[in-house]
Amino acid sequence: MKKEEVPQDKSNLSVSNMKELCYATDENGNYTTALSSGWEPKTIALENSIQDINERVEQARNDVKAGIYSPIVYFMEVHKMDWNILASYVGMWVWRVKRHGKPSVFKKLNDKIMANYAEAFEISVETLKNYKGD
Question: How far apart are alpha carbons 22 and 104 in whole angstroms?
Answer without folding.
Answer: 50
